[in-house]
Amino acid sequence: MAKSKTHVSHRQYDDEESGWACMNWFEYMLVVVLASLLLLGALTLTLFWALYYAGGFAWTEEPARQFNLHPVLMVAGFITFSGFSLLLYRICRCCRRIYVKLFHTIFHALAIPCIVVGFIAVLDSHNLADPPIANFYSLHSWMGLVTMGLFALQFVVGFFSFLILLCCEGATAAFRASLVPIHASFGITTFMLAVATCLTGLTEKAFFKLSSKYSEMPEEGIIMNALAMVLVALGILLSYAVRREPFRTQVKTFVTERL
Ligand code: HEM
């Protein structure tokens, strides 16, 4: 007897799961573990650089050290929190979609205060410097503005779609379905753009701080380059993880829950 895909039972889902090839599980676990290590590693390396090489943190009383909050909070918000949010949303196989969406929203919401304070820190470090430093003169700062704009747009659209899911699930299904591919492709674009923005920021900082010593490969330069390579690895791994078809089996099963 033909069964409707939308009314498939959890039992049937379990059966489909057990059919998932051993190789798929191995690849899946490898991607999840590696991505988690890299997401936490990026934040740890940024913190280590800020504390050990750049003199730690301060607020407006010391604009030069206030700047150090900028890379740490931007990496925390745009890379670590947003990266976990993307990973969880696309490849979580253990919970109902509604909980996955809730955690996706919570992780992105956690990124917001990091991004806001990170942005205020860099603005203050320019405006309160003696003499003040010009704002928005660099490619990095322009890319940063586009990244923050896209992030804000994505959050508003995602949050709005989650709200209408909670209040009128059935009536809004078609509308939410049309939003899914747009939200998904802009999501990975925002992450890649954040990686590129961090790379330009790191290069700029390495030249400002180390100037001609950079080419002598000092320890600090190596740490900054290592952080940049972790970010590049994350760009590759996360775009692979979210596009990998077998990781999304569950999404196909619960058709109504995916929207
Ligand atoms: C996605 C993450 C990031 C975003 C959205 C971002 C955004 C911005 C913006 C908008 C400015 C301009 C502030 C102004 O003109 O007053 C700026 C400045 C700066 N950022 Fe970032 N940033 C990010 C990550 C980083 C990282 C990881 C570093 C590494 C150290 C960094 C280093 C700098 C430096 C050195 C400046 C001052 C020079 C300039 O204005 O270009 N940024 N950032």
From TrEMBL:
<keyword id="KW-1133">Transmembrane helix</keyword>
<feature type="transmembrane region" description="Helical">
    <location>
        <begin position="102"/>
        <end position="122"/>
    </location>
</feature>
<dbReference type="InterPro" id="IPR006593">
    <property type="entry name" value="Cyt_b561/ferric_Rdtase_TM"/>
</dbReference>
<keyword id="KW-0812">Transmembrane</keyword>
<dbReference type="GO" id="GO:0016020">
    <property type="term" value="C:membrane"/>
</dbReference>
<keyword id="KW-0408">Iron</keyword>
<protein>
    <submittedName>
        <fullName>Cytochrome b reductase 1</fullName>
    </submittedName>
</protein>
<keyword id="KW-0249">Electron transport</keyword>
<dbReference type="GO" id="GO:0046872">
    <property type="term" value="F:metal ion binding"/>
</dbReference>
<feature type="transmembrane region" description="Helical">
    <location>
        <begin position="72"/>
        <end position="90"/>
    </location>
</feature>
<feature type="transmembrane region" description="Helical">
    <location>
        <begin position="28"/>
        <end position="52"/>
    </location>
</feature>
<dbReference type="InterPro" id="IPR043205">
    <property type="entry name" value="CYB561/CYBRD1-like"/>
</dbReference>
<dbReference type="GO" id="GO:0016491">
    <property type="term" value="F:oxidoreductase activity"/>
</dbReference>
<keyword id="KW-0472">Membrane</keyword>
<keyword id="KW-0479">Metal-binding</keyword>
<feature type="transmembrane region" description="Helical">
    <location>
        <begin position="142"/>
        <end position="167"/>
    </location>
</feature>
<feature type="transmembrane region" description="Helical">
    <location>
        <begin position="179"/>
        <end position="202"/>
    </location>
</feature>
<dbReference type="Pfam" id="PF03188">
    <property type="entry name" value="Cytochrom_B561"/>
</dbReference>
<feature type="domain" description="Cytochrome b561">
    <location>
        <begin position="34"/>
        <end position="243"/>
    </location>
</feature>
<feature type="transmembrane region" description="Helical">
    <location>
        <begin position="222"/>
        <end position="242"/>
    </location>
</feature>
<keyword id="KW-0349">Heme</keyword>
<keyword id="KW-0813">Transport</keyword>
